[in-house]
Specification:
Blueprint (H helix, E strand, L loop, with lengths): L5 H4 L4 H19 L7 H24 L5 E3 L4 E3 L1 H23 L8 H20 L3 H19 L6 H32 L4 H14 L4 H19 L8 H7 L2 H26 L3 H6 L3 H19 L5 H22 L2 H32 L10 H4 L1 H15 L5 H15 L3 H27 L13 H16 L6 H9 L6
Antiparallel strand pairs: 1-2
Helix pairs in contact: 2-3, 2-5, 3-4, 3-5, 4-5, 4-11, 4-15, 5-6, 5-11, 6-7, 6-11, 7-8, 7-9, 7-10, 8-11, 9-11, 10-11, 10-14, 11-14, 11-15, 13-14, 13-19, 14-15, 14-18, 14-19, 15-17, 15-18, 15-20, 15-21, 17-19, 17-20, 18-19
Amino acid sequence: MQPLSNIESLLYFSPEILLVIFAAAVIILDLVVKNRESAAVAHLSLVGCLCTFAAVLFTHFSFGDEGPVSLFLGMIRLDVFSTFFKILLLLATTATILFSLRSEELDTRLKGEYYALLLAITLGMFLMASSTNLLMIFISLETVSLTSYILAGFLTHSPRSSEAAFKYITYGAVASGTMLFGLSLVFGMTGTGDLAQIAGRLTELLAAGDIAPLAVLIAITFVLAGVGYKIASVPFHMWSPDVYEGAPIPITAFLSVASKSAGFALFIRFFYTGFSASGLMEAVDWSFMLAIISALTMTVGNLAALPQQNVKRLLAYSSIAHGGYLLMGGVLLSSEGVGAILFYLVVYLFMNLGAFYVVVLVANEVGSEMIDGYRGLSSRAPLVAVAMMIFLFSLTGIPPFAGFFGKWILFTAVLEQGYYWLALVGLLNSVVSLYYYARIVKAMFFEDAGEETDRVSFSTGTFALLSVFVIPTIFIGFLNIFYTFSNISVSVMPMQ
């Protein structure tokens, strides 16, 4: 199918257009509303997410019979893969807005800008999942990065938040510059920014001896710096703990799930489409380099989490480790490996957002993010404590929770390709992670709360939202949907 012109593409671009419209509407409404305590801007943002979700479904079924559609003269691709990530990102954004409504950290005077930025960063992540041109990839990545810097430092009264934003900007600028240099090398070697053509041209140039395999490997390494920064993989993870600790809890939850998901969407789109040709893989075997990064990422993340006392910082290092698990599927760059990544991202969405929601609730009641604040939680709020235990055991990978099935599929895919050592490293790291997750469980169920013995009462809406994360964490692993995710991964392949 020929790429659609700019005018023809507008109909299929309606989800992104709606995000822009609602972001502007949120700012205007914030100027009009006199009561700063009003939740009107948050409710309008939720309506925006709902309308965008409807538009995503509309555009998906519009092209369903015709197959993938290339928009704006080949800059963006609309396919099942991009639809999957748009829905995933909308779920994360909606959950973040709901968390923000219950968080006591945020300044009510700045809620308009806050929710507008959330919609803006979602727009950038939509583009990251859909971009098929090198220029569009970089623009979408910068859109997400710039809004992330502001959201990370949104607590202007907190020195930790300002420090988080400064470190985020510093590392982000270096990673973006490095990635841009790698993209320029790819463009210089191939003469095209279209991902669908890059693999073929690189294969031809390598076969003819016009370029050296080392040049391709260097370009891939530089691009990996930018992508690795978004997914917080070693050695580009150093910003993550400080940013996660200093940012507002809802934003920390959002970055840990949505930013990582968008980063992996870009990773899969770029490498699965542009660098997975068999001839190219034979000339430049960069999958082993990814395997090393995967092993180091999960190991560094888990070992660094062991001594942490701040739960947000602990979950930050945990997020790094889970990025290493996800990279195990990226090592294969096959439909099975990509399908395993997609399934794990869905599982990770529910269990990690659920854990951060409990962090929000505890921080509101206790005023602390430390593990000590969870002491005796089972006697003060038993349902919340049980939910947190489910999320933590699922993050560990203990059966029968969803995290176990996610890791099982990842490990199985890796073992089938002969990476036995990588699967062993992943298994050992899962055992290590049990220790620091169990510390929180121990504090909740086996330690005395001291003076904090009064029972905490939460609203029905709080438990309803908590159940939205608990139920999938328990039952989603039993659904036989892995083959569905494998089929989604096939749609990433270039259009003929």
